[in-house]
Design a protein that fits this description.
The complex is a heterodimer of chains A (214) and B (220).
Chain A lengths: L22 H15 L3 H22 L3 H18 L9 H22 L1 H5 L14 H18 L4 H12 L4 H8 L3 H20 L5 H5 L1
Helix pairs in contact in A: 1-2, 2-3, 2-4, 3-4, 7-9, 8-9
Chain B lengths: L2 H10 L10 H6 L3 H23 L6 H46 L8 E6 L5 H8 L9 E3 L7 E6 L1 H16 L8 H17 L20
Antiparallel strand pairs in B: 1-3, 2-3
């Protein structure tokens, strides 16, 4: 199990909020990646099983709903299978996968924009509700989708990503900078703006807010 | 700390890094408005983190892995097909260019325009000139016209290269000083000599002819 990144408040982020910091785990993952890239499909299945929740969690941040996150997750693993030989074991595999998730999400968003008109046609609507067999799962996913809309709808993509990495997943600004390829200063600036935008509506309920906003 | 300062801190600060002995928390202990707001903000962030971090993917990882392998193979095959199609397209374009477009640009291809030109004749008859150029005017729809009114000229229709070749050939024969048309008796004498040789049983081609038979000048 991954170390708890919400340790200060005792929050358990669950299995999806990964990952590791020690080099032993890096080495194990690098070995797994090496086996998978040499054509060992069982090693690839192990790798997918290990990182599936984490990639889905990262994809949630870029997606507009959990269904889109599932599509991004699938796309990430397709790319992983094809490009695993490009992974150099000098860095953690989860950071490499995170960058791949970012790229896949960006590309899928562009593709979806292009195909937006097609999606509106009646023929493109799903024939059945896939969640009818799991009402609990449906509720959770609807809740997550509304939360994503509520929290992130107005935020630019970069602020949204940084807020999620630091405040929701518990990475430090330096770690977030390493993952996103940004400078720590930029991470802090984006985090500052994101927090301000997200908390503004609640802050407005304080009686002294008007005086402050003047 | 005042409420304004507390709000300013809450607007951009990390809610997870608020120790109980911090100025914000100490102010919250005395201010119900700020305390309520801080709790609200922290609960909201906590709820968001809980919902998003604990939402499991619906798909089975093994199915995802299998689908990934299949899709990756399919894309690899698709990539090869696209690459081969591209190579075939390049070869087709190159072949078309090499056989049709470039020759046409050089002016001797099938797509080049046909030109018509009349070559005046001073020595050869139009029929003789036509016999000379005929083998060179068999392609690209080339033609020659022999005037029916007795004018000593030959009209040739062909590509620029064919016209050039025709004119060169006719000029060579026309400028040859030993050509039959410049020495009308030479041809007759040669024919008579050949006839006599045949009667005497001598080989026709043995020995040098007594008179020069008109031939095309040798090219050097």
């Amino acid at each position: 199990m991954a170390p708890n990144r919400f340790g200060k408040r005792g929050r358990d982020p669950g299995p999806s909020a990964t990952v590791y910091r020690d080099r032993t785990t890096w080495a194990i993952d690098a070995q797994l990646a090496s086996l998978a890239s040499s054509g060992d499909d069982s090693a690839f299945t192990t790798l997918v099983t290990r990182f599936h929740p984490a990639v889905f969690r990262w994809a949630l941040m870029f997606a507009s709903d959990p269904d889109e996150a599932e599509d991004i997750t699938q796309e990430v693993f397709v790319r992983t299978y094809r490009q695993l030989d490009q992974y150099r074991s000098d860095g953690p595999l989860d950071a490499w996968l995170y960058r791949m998730t970012r790229r896949a999400a960006t590309q899928m968003r562009r593709t979806r924009k292009r195909r937006g008109r097609l999606a509106l046609s009646p023929a493109a609507q799903p024939l059945r509700n896939v969640y009818t067999t799991d009402p609990g799962g449906r509720v959770d996913r609807e809740r997550a989708a509304s939360l994503i809309r509520e929290l992130f709808a107005t935020l630019p993509r970069r602020q949204r990503e940084i807020f999620d990495l630091v405040d929701l997943q518990g990475f430090s600004p330096v770690e977030a900078a390493e993952r996103t390829g940004m400078k720590p200063v930029s991470v802090r600036a984006n985090l500052f703006k994101a927090r301000k935008a997200i908390r503004e509506s609640l802050l407005a309920t304080h009686p002294a807010y008007r005086e402050l906003s003047r | 700390m005042t409420c304004e300062e507390c709000l300013s801190e809450l607007a951009t600060g990390s809610l997870r890094e608020l120790p109980s002995d911090s100025a914000v928390m100490q102010h919250c202990a005395t201010c119900p408005d700020c305390s309520r707001l801080t709790t609200l903000l922290r609960d909201r962030e906590y709820e968001a983190a809980t919902v998003l971090n604990n939402l499991p993917p619906m798909s089975n990882p093994i199915a995802v892995a299998e689908a990934s392998v299949l899709t990756a193979h399919r894309r690899r095959v698709g990539g090869v097909v696209v690459m081969l199609s591209g190579a075939a397209l390049v070869v087709t374009i190159w072949f078309t260019a090499a056989t049709l477009i470039f020759p046409a640009m050089r002016g001797n291809g099938p797509m080049s325009t046909l030109l018509t030109e009349t070559i005046p004749l001073s020595c050869l008859s139009p029929q003789q000139a036509a016999d000379i150029v005929d083998p060179y005017l068999r392609t690209h729809g080339s033609l020659y016209f022999i005037p029916t009114s007795g004018i000593s000229a030959l009209t040739v229709r062909g590509t620029a290269a064919q016209l050039r070749k025709s004119k060169d050939l006719i000029r060579e024969f026309e400028t040859d000083p030993g050509a039959a048309c410049r020495n009308p008796t030479a041809g007759l004498r040669a024919a008579a000599k050949m006839d006599a040789d045949l009667r005497q049983g001598a080989p026709v081609l043995a020995g040098p002819p007594s008179e020069k038979v008109p031939t095309a000048p040798k090219k050097h």
